[in-house]
Structure formats: structure tokens, C-alpha cells
Design goal:
By secondary structure, the protein is of the alpha+beta class. The chain contains 16 helices and 10 strands. A 6-stranded mixed barrel has the order 2-3-8-5-7-6, surrounded by 4 helices. Helix 1 packs across helix 12 and helix 2 runs antiparallel to helix 10. The longest helix is centred in the N-terminal third of the chain and has 40 residues.
Length: 414
């Protein structure tokens, strides 16, 4: 592109037009692109924030990797624990026992997932110790048959710290009256709150030794839990550990356990990107109409430039500069506005709620009551690039039409 083409294109953009309607449409095009880019950046940042927040809550109770047996019982678990703990990427590892049961208090009965843990080791594996509303994990001492309940589970049962609940397991015992379920009384010593319904509603923690007795597992456990230094390496670590265990041993990681959820979140993010990109696309149509009218308005100028020796390619580039400048200004407005809002959404949303007396995420209905935001550089680059190329594409037809203007026809009635 020659300097004069850039100079004339910029001059056309900032010059006062005889047709003010064209200037108005140019302004609308800039604002439309800016609004679309800003909305994309803010929405993607909020979705990243929700994904990050929920992932943190899931991993607060879910180990990064788990080693279990097809039979449901890991007999030589000390050897399995040693293999997992010696891996250089594993930060901590511990055995666990899991099983299903029912908890009863007075006339209330709730189904639960019982998890037997070693309290000291669990502190290194998950964030459950930090989620305790009442009591502490250290109160789960072996042989005392203590239990820690999720906050919603405790509320449904009407249980408080100090109460005794009846834990019923499906592992039955044979009596003269037939097969009867096993019953054991446990003392409530703590209540935790993760902030996610599947755990707060249906998870109960007991000591590992008590769980082995309750589920008649002897010295076996259900599996080994592991926590990694880099949780994103979980699939690779799980794959590498498979070669160190027999074929009847199953190794899973947190991405497999929650694969459906993260797949849905990824799909929603893509769909929101596509839907909001339509705003930018509509604004790009305004660029087309702006340049088409500008070409009509500047036909005499185009004819003069052609008679002075300007080639059709040069004419095309002049109007491409004009359209791209509209797109670039709109993109810049959108990027700046989107980044500012995404970085300060924790302040902006409470201000709007206070100003209008509303609450967007009520604690009564939503587990996340604050709007999170995680601005990622990659999203900003993708959105800005997409906006630029849409603007560039929108300039092609009007610019091509300008290059086809015949000087004799344009100057005939001048």
C-alpha cells in the first residue's frame, strides 16, 4: 500500500461529509462493534470465573487421581499407596473407604455417600478441613464412631453437633429372622459446607478404621486418593501410573470424574461466543452500508483520482483503509471497555444491585452469590482478532465496487 492511499483513506474518515447520515452510520458501526467486543470479553470472563470457581469447589473435595480395584476392595493397599506417593508429581496420597448408606435421626431418613478418611492425611488432600462450619476433621478419631455431615444433610435431618444418628448400610447380617441391614450409632462432631449440592446434601465423613468395620472390609480399603502439584497434569499422571498396577486396578482422574460437567461448560462457552459474535457481525453490515454510501458520495473524487493515474487497486485500498479504521476504533473501544468491566465486575455489580435494590445471585437460590470474573489474555486476543477480520471482510465488496467506477461516467453530470 502506497502512503497516499493510506493518507486519503484516513482523510476520508475524519473529513466532514456533506452527507451527515453517512457519518452517523459510521458512528453506529463503531459503537456496535465496540459493544459486541465488550460484551464478548465480559461474558467470556464471567463464564471463566464461574468455571474456575466451581472447579475449585469440586476439587476441594475430589482428589486429583484415584486408584481403585474392579472388585471394589483394594487388598494390598499399602503397596499401592507407596507407588502413588513415590511419584514425583504427587504431592500427597492416602487410603479411603467409600460406600452407600442411610442416616436416620428421629423420623428423618436421608441417603448418603459415606467416606472413610484419615483426618490428618485428608488435610493434605482436600480443602474439607477449611470448609468446616462446626467442629473439626481431627475429631474423627478411630474407634469413637464419630461422623461429620454436610450442611444440607444435617439440616434435612435436623442434626446438630452432639446429636447421635443411626447409620444404616446395605451390607446385611444373617439372623434367624432373615437378612437384616447393619445398624450403627454415630455421634455428630462436625458440619461442613462445600457450596455444592451433591456434597452438602449427601456426603458423610467417618474415620477410615470405623468405615472398615462398618462395611466389613477387614484391612482392605476402597482405594487410594492422590493430590498433584499440577492438577492439569492429572490425565498424564493417571496414564503413567496404569503401567505400574495390575490389570484389575482402575485409575481415574478428576477430569474423567467430572467430564460431563466440564464438557457442558465448554459447549456453553462456545455457544455464547457464537451468539454474541452476531452483534459484531450486525455492526459489520453497517460498515458495508457506510462504505457503499461513501463510494456513491465520492464518485467524482474517485474519477479525478483515476484520471490522475490511480489504479483500481489503489482506489480499493483507499476505501478499505476507511472501513478498517472504523473497525479498529470500534474494536479498541470494545477491548478497553470489556477489560475494564471484567477486571472491576466485583465492584460494578454490587453498585448496580445497591443502586436499583436488586440482587442478581441470591444466596437462597444460588451457591455462588457473587459474580466471578477471570479475564484471560487468550480470550481478549481471539475476540479482538475476530472483530478485526470481520471488519476487514466487510470492506471488500464496497471497496471493490469503488475500484470499478468509470471516470467518464462519474464526471458526465458534474
Amino acid at each position: 500500500m502506497q502512503p497516499y492511499e493510506l493518507f486519503i483513506g484516513l482523510r476520508y474518515t475524519r473529513a466532514k461529509r456533506r452527507n451527515h447520515f453517512i457519518s452517523f452510520i459510521s458512528l453506529i458501526s463503531m459503537l456496535g462493534i465496540g459493544l459486541g467486543v465488550m460484551a464478548l470479553i465480559v461474558v467470556l470472563s464471567v463464564m471463566n470465573g464461574f468455571q474456575k470457581e466451581i472447579r475449585a469447589r469440586i476439587l476441594g473435595v475430589t482428589p486429583h487421581i484415584q486408584v481403585s480395584s474392579d472388585s471394589g476392595q483394594l487388598n494390598d493397599w499399602q503397596r499401592a499407596l507407596s507407588i502413588v506417593a513415590k511419584d514425583p508429581e504427587v504431592r500427597a496420597a492416602a487410603p479411603y473407604v467409600s460406600g452407600q448408606g442411610m442416616v436416620s435421626l428421629n423420623e428423618s431418613v436421608q441417603g448418603v455417600m459415606v467416606r472413610g478418611i484419615l483426618p490428618d492425611a485428608e488435610q493434605k488432600l482436600t480443602a474439607l478441613g477449611d470448609k468446616m462450619k462446626r467442629g473439626a476433621l481431627s475429631d474423627l478419631r478411630a474407634g469413637e464412631f464419630n461422623i461429620v455431615l454436610g450442611v444440607d444433610l444435617a439440616r434435612a435431618l435436623g442434626a446438630r453437633v452432639g446429636d447421635s444418628v443411626l447409620l444404616i448400610t446395605p451390607q446385611g447380617q444373617i439372623t434367624p429372622a432373615g437378612m437384616l441391614p447393619r445398624l450403627k450409632q454415630f455421634h455428630v462432631v462436625g458440619i461442613f459446607e462445600i457450596g455444592m449440592s451433591p456434597y452438602d446434601n449427601a456426603l458423610a465423613l467417618i474415620n477410615l478404621t470405623d468405615a472398615q468395620k462398618l462395611f466389613r472390609m477387614g484391612s482392605s480399603v476402597s482405594g487410594i486418593s492422590g493430590n498433584l502439584y499440577n492438577l492439569d497434569r492429572a490425565p498424564q499422571v493417571a496414564y503413567e501410573l496404569e503401567d505400574k498396577f495390575p490389570n484389575d486396578t482402575y485409575i481415574s482422574d478428576w477430569t474423567r470424574q467430572n467430564a460431563n460437567y466440564f464438557a457442558v461448560v465448554a459447549m456453553e462457552k462456545k455457544m455464547m461466543f457464537i451468539i454474541l459474535s452476531l452483534i459484531v457481525l450486525v455492526a459489520a453490515f453497517n460498515i458495508v452500508s457506510t462504505l457503499v454510501m461513501a463510494v456513491t458520495d465520492k464518485q467524482a473524487d474517485i474519477a479525478i483520482l483515476r484520471t490522475l493515474g490511480a489504479s483500481p487497486k489503489s482506489i480499493m485500498q483507499i476505501f478499505m483503509v476507511q472501513g478498517m479504521l472504523i473497525g479498529l476504533i470500534g474494536m479498541a473501544i470494545g477491548v478497553i471497555g470489556g477489560v475494564v468491566i471484567a477486571l472491576n465486575i466485583g465492584t460494578i455489580v454490587p453498585f448496580i444491585e445497591h443502586l436499583f435494590g436488586v440482587q442478581f445471585l441470591s444466596k437462597e437460590f444460588y451457591y455462588i452469590s457473587e459474580l466471578p470474573s477471570d479475564l484471560q489474555k487468550g480470550d481478549v486476543i481471539v475476540v479482538a482478532s475476530m472483530s478485526f477480520f470481520i471488519s476487514l471482510f466487510a470492506t471488500l465488496y464496497p471497496s471493490w465496487r469503488a475500484s470499478k467506477v468509470q471516470p467518464a461516467e462519474a464526471l458526465r453530470y458534474e
